Amino acid sequence: MAASVPNGHPAAGGGTPAVPSSSSLLFLGTGCSSAVPNARCLIQPPDPPCAVCSQSLSVAPELNPNYRCNTSLLIDYCQDEAHKYILIDVGKTFREQVLRWFVHHKIPCVDSIILTHEHADAILGLDDIRIVQPFSPTNDIDPTPIYLSQFAMDSIAQKFPYLVRKKLKEGEEVRRVAQLDWRVIESDVEKPFVTSGLEFVPLPIYDDMHELYAI
């Protein structure tokens, strides 16, 4: 992996840390598409009640193996005490992940995004990316680079046309939506890509006849 980070975010908390900061991985979610607990299991409890779902609301999330959001990973890449935040997958539970884990770990933003595939548990939080971008009344902010396959790009363009469109129609008012720089990557292990200072190698695999990427 490349090690160069030209400009990053200062370490959270301000001042010079007592020990050098280091890179880390933050698992935002490791659950299935419906997440855990299953909401139906709680509002229509079986008899006897499901032990996993019942326990899931009784323990703090950071201590609770039975509360799991959609699968997602945040890479906190630190170089020279500056941080770059790389998000892998933005599923249905993204807003909850921000409230639970970004706040807890003082993550201020996302610098780049990688999408492994186009299923709901990997993309349906894209509208909420705006909450981890700078605020501007006119939405004139630098777009966040987002890497994905052509297949995923075509699917997302149908689901979120307003996130993909480059220009406003005549007379259309500015809407504060996520600003994204869509970058299609090739299904070729010989063609890695670099984002936020790190090199990634796409490894195409197939799930239910759909192509997705292991990184």
UniProtKB/TrEMBL annotation:
Domain (Metallo-beta-lactamase): residue spans on this chain: 85-204
Top-level division of the source organism's lineage: Eukaryota
CDD domains on file: metallo-hydrolase-like_MBL-fold
PANTHER family: HYDROLASE C777.06C-RELATED, HYDROLASE C777.06C-RELATED-RELATED
Protein name as catalogued: Metallo-beta-lactamase domain-containing protein
